[in-house]
Write a structure and sequence with these properties.
Number of helices of chain B: 12
Shape of chain B: globular
CATH topology of one domain in chain A: Alpha-Beta Plaits
Strand order of the largest sheet of chain A: 5-6-7-3-8-9
Order of helices and strands of chain A: EEEHEEHHHEHEHEEHEHEEHEH
Structural class of chain A: alpha/beta
Oligomer: heterodimer
CATH class of one domain in chain A: Alpha Beta
Helix content of chain A: 25-40%
Helix content of chain B: over 70%
Largest interface: A-B, 30 and 22 residues
Number of strands of chain A: 13
Bound molecules: adenosine-5'-triphosphate, magnesium ion
Largest sheet of chain A: 6 strands, mixed
CATH superfamily of one domain in chain A: ACT-like. Chain A, domain 2
Number of strands of chain B: 0
Radius of gyration of chain A: 24 Å
Amino acid sequence: MKVADAIVIQGLKKVFKGALGDRVAAVDDLSIQVSQGEIFGFIGPNGAGKTTTIKILLGLLFPTSGKLQVLGAPAGDNETKRRISYLPESPYFYEHMSGYEVLDFYCKLFRLGKPARKKKINELLERVGLASDGKRALRQYSKGMLQRIGIAQSLINDPDLLILDEPTSGLDPIAHKDIQDLIISLKQQGKTVFVSSHQLTDIERVCDRVAIINRGKLVKLGSMEELLHIGRIIVTLTGADDAVLAAVKAVSEECVMDGNMLRVYVRSEDAVLKVLEAAKGKATLVSVVPQRQTLEDLFVEIVREARK
Amino acid sequence: MIIWSIAKTTVGDALRKKVVQIFLVVAIGLIVISLSFSQNLAFSAKEGSSVDLYLLKGFGLGLMALAGGLISLVMGVSLIPQEIERRTIYTILSKPVQRYEFIVGKFLGAILTLAICMALMGTVFMGVIAAKAYAANASQVMPAVTAAGGLESTAAQVTKVQLFDVNSLMGVVNVFMQFVLLTSVVMLFSVFFTPTINFFLGLGVYVIGLMASLTETLAWHDPDTSPTILQAFYTVVHAVIPNFDKFNQMNSLLHPEMAVTNMPLYTFQTSLYGLIYALIAMTVAVIIFEQKEV
Ligand SMILES: Nc1ncnc2c1ncn2[C@@H]1O[C@H](COP(=O)(O)OP(=O)(O)OP(=O)(O)O)[C@@H](O)[C@H]1O
Ligand SMILES: [Mg+2]
């Protein structure tokens, strides 16, 4: 474990005991390492174990087995919590308080003095677009407004590591964009962000790396480039014989025969030309297109595969 | 600062609970209505002021105990489970807040809420007693003056009732202290039990605690023989369940046989008992809560 790792999870397992004595492994042998300064996406279908993992990272739940480190300290360490922030999924706050009061309360938990609190809260309300709603009781807030308060409270301590559980849920498209921009600006400040979301377009835009989990198990982990094969080009041919196949295999990353269609995946324009050279006169060119797989395509494919 | 912030937030939240407000308003209303009790205390005044207005005082203290008990039960059982259910605990415990600070803050908040309720009811109660005493004094002096004609000779015979009754105030303190204790017990239970189960459990403990003299009798056995299983059971019950009866000794409606001679001292002792018990309950609650998943 390097000190530069913001999060280290090794062989994490979490078993919940049901009321009838049944046991559910919500997280099973999960290992993930997140470097400092990285924007890390944590995705998976409903009930995959994302929230469970996040709660374990914060010391709210305890692991059944496995090792964890958060900013070089054990999960839940009180001093380390000064440098961490957490946005729970669908956050909920004391309804009787106003937006201002509830942020004031959270500021006090960081032992901020009165002038510092005042300055901070006004700044945060401004930042999440609630400057004119600060005096209203949270009871009157909409779902998205509560989510914004949640985001504001996660920025109080200028954290080094932000753990965000579905930060964009319930937000309108403009707010989505704001959150994306916020995460990108956090990255520029050298912060680490660990974000779980079902909004795969958001994840795709902001994350450096992603882990896909299903039923508590890690099914895919990699950088966005690796996972989405960004930069790959697909050359599709028909009527290719074995000789052509052998020739293009040598210059391509991957070849897939689909009926009489041959799809050749290559990395460079140079390789495209080589494929065309090999096929010249022996097969017919159908198309040359850059591969455009979205995270959503990949996600659906991987999860369907895992469920089989 | 953290504990205090959590406590203040808890008070704000608790005082906005409809049930708490209703219990409080009804209790205060009934205490005011007790003004209409037509007990003439001029006769009993000679026996010393502690027996004066015993009906009024007993009724008022009993009402405060009922309201206080219900408020502390309703509040105490949900204090922690509600934080978990509403998920407000996540954002708090993920800040640099120790779990014990959270529990202590919540408990302190509950005690403050209870203190505010008791202060409101107690003020009205003391006011009602003062008003009654004033009325009694007035009616007592009148006939004395007209009958005897000379002021000097009768003044010595008139026993004035104190407007401010220290013993009644001590009664209010006792009512308060027993619910500090009860709150700590249900808060400890709330680490394991759901609010509904906990409500009845807490009520059960309170009722058994009120019958402390009964459990003591049941537990008694001849020192020369070994106790029966039942006696051993009641010995444990009597030892573990807090003695809530201690706090009601001054209520002459409940304990006509009792005569506490030094109320302030007695109150000091019961308060100490309540605080020590609460301290133990809270320590256990903290130890268990440290291991609890939220
Ligand atoms: N306290 C609990 N007791 C028992 N089982 C639980 C508990 N919390 C979660 N689980 C189970 O653990 C599994 C993972 O749940 P988790 O909340 O981590 O999923 P998730 O990936 O966050 O899903 P979602 O996308 O719906 O938020 C689910 O099967 C859930 O039923
Ligand atoms: Mg979740």
